[in-house]
Amino acid sequence: MTKIRIAGPPGTGKTRCLVNKYYDHIQQHSATEIIVISHTNTAADEIRKRILDDKNIQRYQDKTGKEIFHLVKESRETLKETVTTMHKCFMSRIPEKKGKSVVFTIGDNTDDYDNLKTRYPLFNKHTGSKKFFSLEMLITGHPFFKFHNTARDNGFDTVKYYRTLSFEEIRDYKYNITELQELEKNYNNFKSNIKLNQRAEKILDFQDMVEHFTNSDEIKSEDLDIKILMVDEAQDSSVIQRAAEKKTAAAVEYFYKAGDPDQSLFGFAGANPDEFHKEFAHPEEELKQGFRCPRVINEYCKQIIKPVWDHYGYERVWAPREENGQVVEGEKFEMMNLEQDPNLAELTKRLTQTSETFAFTCRGNEPKETIRYLIKQGVPFKIADKHHKFKFKYPAADIKNQREFKKLISENKKLT
What pTM did the predictor assign? Predict the structure, then answer.
């Protein structure tokens, strides 16, 4: 097995590089032998979209002189199965044995969660009548399943993970430690008792699938028939996902890992940026040309991240974005507040005289100063809550444009 680590700062084209690797290998292997995995459905959909994109295919053909259009297009249906999330990839390779093992299901015909909460009402304590339509929704929207999922991603049991949490995190999970232990016990009993779940001797959830895939002696690496394995955003793989990647890669010809430890977002869920920094300090392929940040922003970012690079004993080459062969300069304005700062007039001008969308990011609680400023300017906006759902700070159904929004404010109507 040849392992190739592909490293690069933000916007240097790591996913683009994997797409080109796919084009290289589709000429020697069937689409079923090339597996590309990422962490979310959105990320997998984006990779699949890029692989099938006519412009990307044509760009590759122009550069290499190799005809791959028909090979790629013929793999369209196969790509739905082979460019996927880790859980789906491993789930598809777990043989369902008659009455012995099935996947935890929430759907129209089968609803394991509905059966579970009927038997154990404590599961419904903090969700009431809320309806979950998929296992993904259950894991992100139910406090116990969110806790249980994250604990297992970190390789911890319930008590050990609970002891690592801050008071705020404990409050978010709602249940106390005694309740969490009771829920875990009931959940495991339900999954492993056909008399309770009324479906199979063993029901597998996402973590079960990954662990079962990794630990099962019946599933052997050489029997998977995978020749090329690619992992995108590899810096965010959890403890159990990294073990599954290792087993999957054991019998492949090429194993590509693309990622950047400086962009790791899921340390709380089992990712290990420290180990990833060490592993990727000297990658086989380092991407150096940025396609996103102009020079000013690029330099500012490098100042922030350089102490981390120094700590691990390496430094990335990260060139700023270019257009028509020229480096894009970019601009950066530092502001102390949104009331009397010298650069406030420039910000207001750019906000009110453009059709572009702006993003304000902040640390801490609701950004009241920013909200007051935007209301004063009459600029329609949304605000993201901690669950990443966007909520309008004004009644969207009543507002069609900025003029109507200003009218609403002038009449001192209460914002929803």
Answer: 0.77
